[in-house]
Task: structure prediction
Amino acid sequence: MKGRGTSILLIYTGGTIGMIENAETGALENFDFDQLRQQVPELQRFAFHIGSCSFDPPIDSSDMDPAIWARLAALIRNNYGRYDGFVVLHGTDTMAYTASALSFMLEGLGKPVILTGSQLPIGVLRTDGKENLLTSIEIAAEREGGRPMVPEVCIFFENHLMRGNRTVKVNAENFNAFRSLNYPPLAEAGIHIKYERQFIRRVAAGTPLRCHTRMATEVAVLKLFPGIREEAVAAVLGIPGLRGLVLETFGAGNAPRQPWLVSRLKAAAGGGVVVVNVTQCGAGAVEMGRYETGRQLIEAGVVCGHDSTTESALAKLMFLLGQDLPPAEVRRLMGVSIAGEITPPEA
Result:
């Protein structure tokens, strides 16, 4: 149920959804919210208030970084008391990174923050943007028993509402651009929007919002591949000031049995670098104790990332390291679900 007193803040950061084709040049150009209302007259049919604000200039999703995440998180914090939910229009390329980061930065979140976008500009005849936008607003405004239906950071795309820190972009062309491969969708939009209440994460009533805007950038991602050379690994591990590394391994968390690899990872971990093991596979989890090729990483001090996505593991590392926690505590928390981002084995 959506009350008439409900207010939703629409935040345009940039991306394809907020572009329109220049009739003379054919180039895509950003447009403002007055033009958005012209392109989507259905917005006037909502019985609740929709406020809007936009980044000026708009940010291409390829240019997203922790400083912009901090601006976005602060914008939500500063408007938290005035609005019942938030819809963030965002480019698709880095949307999963932003959603993951916000899930950690907005601690104690009790209201919906729905990120959405489109593969085609909203002014194009066959655009997916209009449906994504309208449904995201409807979900953000949905309440049950006087409380928000989905009080967490999510991505809505092509009929599916997904937990933001479980989501990855899987397609650069089709409308079904995002998937949550290790966690069920929170809702599916058909004739009706069907919510999967048992999968939705909620904080205790009255929990205050704490906004964290410090994110460490002394991190890196290293993807293993057959034939990887020691020089390549040494170059990444030798980055000055490196504090965290997401290690993308094979299958259930396996790595080549090269003594130099284990030695360098062990030295890095011993020097305070938090190394987190995630699988290169789209679905499934890391189980480093299953094979010898994984157990060697345990001995090197590598932390199990369980079923985390690379995007989520990286954002979580940036968040935890930004709190200036000791490496041992960061390692511990990387194995604990703090925003629904992983499913530990015991769960």
Summary: The chain has a mean pLDDT of 88. Residues 66-78 form the longest helix (13 residues).
